[in-house]
Amino acid sequence: MRNAFAEELLLLAAQDPKIVLLSGDIGNRLFDKFKTQFPSRFYNCGVAEANMASMAAGLAMCGLKPITYTITPFNTTRCLEQIRDDICYHNVPVLIIGTGAGLSYASLGCTHHSCEDISFLRSIPNMTVLCPGDTMELRSLLKAALNSNAPAYMRIGKTGEPLIHSSPPPLQIGKGFPIREGTDLCIFSTGNMLPTALETAALLQSKEISAHVVSLHTVKPLDTELLSSLTPKYSLWITLEEHSLIGGLGASIAEWMIDHTIQQTKLLRFGTPDRFPHPIGSQKYLRAQYGLEPETITGRIIKEMHHANTSCYTR
Amino acid sequence: MHSLEELQQIAARIRYRIIEMSRYGKAPHLGSSLSCVDLIVAAYFHFLRISPKDPSAPQRDRFFLSKGHAVSTLYAVLAEKGFFPLELLKTFNKDGSSLPEHPTPHCVPGVEVATGSLGHGLSLGLGHALAANIQNIPYRTMVLMSDGECNEGSVWEAALFAPIHKLDHLIAIVDFNKWQATGRSEQIMNLSPLKEKWSAFGWQAYEINGHSLEEILAVFSKIPETPGKPTAIIAHTVKGKGVSFMEDDNNWHYRIPTDEDLQKAKQELFP
Q: For residues B187 and A61, what is the distance between their CA atoms, to the nearest angstrom?
């Protein structure tokens, strides 16, 4: 996703002289073309994320469209107060890019994981939280975020994620995007779990269970219109995210369900648990530890459906 | 252009007003507000090119009060300059007022940013100074910080960044009153030698008496002395300056003046 970000940004910056890129001393060579083409609009801000975030707010107050770019936890939790006070409180258009969403940098250890960022950032007023499911969604959301004239946070993967869309889909911020039609249950996926959602749907299909899959690329604002429309259609909802079960997509939907007294729909949430992983390993390894691979997810869904069918309570 | 004597008269008026504001608004931080009066008066009445008629003009000079807890001084100076009616100062720190105890975004014309948490202003100022370069608009950006604020690491992140990008239209002022909320700053996080620290970071640094309008104007007139270098002014000040029983007494970080205090202050400020 990093390369797609750099490529797309280059195209957008050529069209919009307000775009300014601030990097927290990462992306070695990634932005070489940007630096060459727009030398006055690229700044390596060093390993100083608090200054980078506030400075971005200052640039945005002057009518520019700054983007801050570094590894997710450094660009979010490290400088959370600067994001809250300077960017969100002043409601200025800074786009914060966290590279290495969720467990993308799994083997680098917990200092580089980001399983709490959605939770922190979605609780700040004026903030939009975006989690593209593949590079095509990233391209589409990047453009939308830069045109939104408001604070936004986008968590992106690193490299080599599977491609879901063949071209940038017409995504709108705050509007879920249907990926696969199905009739028995609905899977809401956010961010880099989208390929897993589709693999899960395929596994379910082999058991003659038809899964509807939606990419909820925007966690905030939550697409409540879509949720309302899907409530009567599916009695089982699944949420998939490479993020803590506390405060992420699943939690957002659970909050909405409680507030709207949704009782006929069962919600099954998949995400990371409330503990730091130990021992550490690759993204694949940690996903397996957390039950986030398609086989385990499918197994739990089938178990839940079986339970629902044998329950004496009306669903 | 105002004479030194006129500036001194304005400063005395501002001091009295902020003591009144603290009294009637029941707002603390009076000592911190009094220590930066001369600096802010000199900035607005002598240095900054900002018109109350067009307070958001793109080419205006910027002033950021990073030590947001001293905002009564900024409000009083902005009112004196005509950014909003003097009458509004009576609402300071009252429910629903547009003059809260720490400034909110655009609470009144002339207030550039919301501050209150320390260590944000210099980086915000950097953003504006960098935008001046990117957009090729020749304004200056001045940021006033407290000495306690220099405990924050983000101040030094910003201090490292500015000289690299030759932001000689950026001015940082430290209101060095030697106190922070609960004690002597040198006993909590020793900043000395402060001028040398800023020089070592690549700034054109000065040390002045922050209550001598003559010295303040003299240093302002030099900016930028060295092309390419941002300016740091270490202004030695006295917390509570201008009222004998408040001077250098850190109880006035939180104490609210009584009617009697107000009368005594009036006699001292307008002998």
A: 37
